[in-house]
Amino acid sequence: MKKLLAVSSLVVFLCGCSDPISLPEDLKSNLGKEEFVEPETSEYTTYVKSIREYMYYRTQAVLNHDVNLLWDRYPDLKNNIDQKTGINIEKDEIDSMDDVIDANYSIESYEPIKVKRINEQEVIILVHGSISYVKKDFDEAGGEYLIEVNLQKKSDQWTVVKTDEYLEHEYKEWLEEREK
Question: Which domain of life, per UniProt (predicted)?
Fold first, then answer.
């Protein structure tokens, strides 16, 4: 009986010591596929925290009208900015929102996050949420957004290295694909 208890305790202990950032098997099997899937429960919190942190720094940059608040935390977002494709275009939002005093965001207001697995060190998170800004005159701005957030594992933590916001025509194409 003591052996059974000792073995059971060892198994429970070893399961509890597993790497919390490693990807689950079903995401590993998604390697190379061109589709987004819902993350495993064990990985959901890790991804959501990374996206929440990104949105926090993004809204702080808008509220303080200082893109460096975002870029200091995510220096890769300074690179390869392309307004025509929606790549790393946070600066455009910051520049256009110079009269806001408050912000609220919901990363899953339209649907839960989805994950596309690139390799062991990189995933893309599809975020379909909303953001609302309150202007100085108490009018509102903002709305729905659809964005692919590339996360890369650096020092055993997921960090944002690229964003791709769906532009209006891309969003319409995405909607048409979903209806098929």
Answer: Bacteria
Question: For residue range 8-46, what is the model confidence (pLDDT) as tens digits?
Answer: 443 334 444 444 444 444 444 444 456 899 999 989 999
Q: What is the CATH number of the domain that holds 175?
A: 3.10.450
10 lies in some domain: no
The secondary element (H helix, E strand) that includes residue 52 is helix 41-63
9 is written with which tokens?
């305790």
Rounded to whole angstroms, the Cα distance separating 144 from 165 reads 11
**Cα dihedral sign, 60-140-150-157:** positive
Residues with Cβ within 8 Å of residue 47, at least 6 apart in sequence: 39, 113, 115, 123, 125, 151, 158
